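Weekly sync, protein design subgroup
Attendees: M.S., D.O., the rotation student, P.L. (late)

Item 1: inverse folding check
M.S. brought a backbone from last month's batch and wanted to see whether the design step gives back something sensible before we order anything. D.O. pointed out we never logged the input encoding, so this time it goes straight into the notes. Structure tokens as presented (321 positions):
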């Protein structure tokens, strides 16, 4: 099977900016391009195949047509495609929010929960985000602080730099701050409970909906493990690899190519290649696909050996055994 280039679905949330269009060349008419869903089979926004035999087909339809061989045996433990990958351009801060666990989300919402990781592609000087609480907080205090607009006082504020990685387990209170551009790798879910939104108004002129009761039910109100869990850089012929995060749902590595790199893919899973810097090409036994910054490629599990040529940085995501 061939490597496929993907076109994303877009979201125009009120906090978005213009970098995805102006810096990464995303073709979107929205005034604000908050998110581009680069690898998605979610009904709220599917990515599509760009070029070749399956041009214009949604990723979900492509996977139905190609069958389990494209996903790989490691995906057999999931009832649905396990991953959603997006770019997020947060010109303004996102709401304070939390995502439920699988068990809670399946019962309450009919979809899976959401564990995610953020890879910071770029940020403005002084940018920050919220990651968990800064001390143990009772549910009563948590609810009261939402009511009286003092919630930020008990949240863990973290300064952000390009290349930082944050692994956000379900149940963790969090928010991306303004001036941050990230690549987010997450469970295939759009289940979010908004806790606090700075009093902002939506497009309809009304305050955006909060989900306080559900958030109280799922939030972890003790400090989270915020340590950087990235691995060490490991030299490979033509560049280096570095582990960013690994969990049941996804395994993500950063690959730097300065010449030609053979990707360490074992055929047990598809691979997502998201280009964050530079340009080059990816080749398997059936085709070669060129790429530039912002491009997203889908590598079927049975594509065989994959070589990347150029001077570039990729975020490589697979599903572990």
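Designed sequence read out in the meeting:
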């Amino acid at each position: 099977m061939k490597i496929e280039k993907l076109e994303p679905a877009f979201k125009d949330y009120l906090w978005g900016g213009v970098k995805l269009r102006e810096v990464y060349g995303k073709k979107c008419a929205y005034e604000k391009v908050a998110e581009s869903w680069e690898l998605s089979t979610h009904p709220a926004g599917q990515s599509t195949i760009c070029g070749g035999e399956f041009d214009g087909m949604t990723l979900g339809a492509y996977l139905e047509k190609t069958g389990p061989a494209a996903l790989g045996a490691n995906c057999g433990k999931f009832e649905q495609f396990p991953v959603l990958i997006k770019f997020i351009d947060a010109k303004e801060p996102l709401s304070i929010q939390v995502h439920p666990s699988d068990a809670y989300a399946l019962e309450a919402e009919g979809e899976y929960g959401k564990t995610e990781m953020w890879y910071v592609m770029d940020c403005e000087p002084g940018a920050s985000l919220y990651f968990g609480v800064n001390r143990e907080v009772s549910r009563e205090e948590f609810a009261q602080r939402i009511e009286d607009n003092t919630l930020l006082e008990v949240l863990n504020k973290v300064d952000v730099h390009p290349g930082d990685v944050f692994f956000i387990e379900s149940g963790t209170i969090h928010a991306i701050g303004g001036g941050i551009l990230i690549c987010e790798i997450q469970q295939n879910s759009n289940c979010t409970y908004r806790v606090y939104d700075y009093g902002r108004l939506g497009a309809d002129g009304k305050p955006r909906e909060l989900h306080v009761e559900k958030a109280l039910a799922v939030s972890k109100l003790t400090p989270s493990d915020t340590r950087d869990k990235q691995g060490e850089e490991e030299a490979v012929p033509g560049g280096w690899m570095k582990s960013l995060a690994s969990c049941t749902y996804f395994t993500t590595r950063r690959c730097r190519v300065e010449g030609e790199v053979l990707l360490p893919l074992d055929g047990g899973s598809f691979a997502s290649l998201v280009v964050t810097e530079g340009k080059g090409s990816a080749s398997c036994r059936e085709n070669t696909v060129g790429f530039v910054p912002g491009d997203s490629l889908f590598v079927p599990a049975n594509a065989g050996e994959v070589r990347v040529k150029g001077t570039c940085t990729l975020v490589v995501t697979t599903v572990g055994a």
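Discussion: The mean pLDDT is 95. The CA atoms of residues 144 and 151 lie 8 Å apart.
Action: P.L. to compare against the previous round before Friday.
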